[in-house]
Design brief:
It is a single chain. By secondary structure, the chain is mainly α. The chain has one domain. α3 packs antiparallel against α4. The protein is globular. The two termini are about 20 Å apart.
Length: about 90
């Protein structure tokens, strides 16, 4: 997973902007010690992809007048629930 962060940094993303990614991964490892690191890393990648796709679909499907702070907050709340449930699932 660190390799992916290094590639992002090589594309011009500042280290300071990656700090939250590193922090979230450390917190996940603490919250889910029973889940192997490889499984958490894989889930993190899949969830990042799913979140980006969900937001893109929302933007495409939602008329501009309906793209309010409240509707975005509602989407983010549903995505957060999805992510928390998915990350904590027992590893296969």
């Amino acid at each position: 997973m660190i390799g992916r962060l290094e590639r992002v940094r090589d594309q011009g993303v500042a280290d300071a902007n990656l700090a939250s990614v590193r922090r979230s991964r450390a917190l996940l490892a603490t919250l889910y010690p029973q889940i192997p690191t490889e499984a958490l890393e894989e889930r993190d990648t899949w969830l990042n992809d799913a979140i980006v796709l969900a937001i893109a679909r929302w933007v495409r499907a939602t008329p501009p007048a309906e793209r309010t702070r409240a509707s975005l907050d509602a989407l983010l709340a549903r995505l957060t629930a999805f992510c928390v449930t998915t990350l904590g699932a027992r590893a296969a």
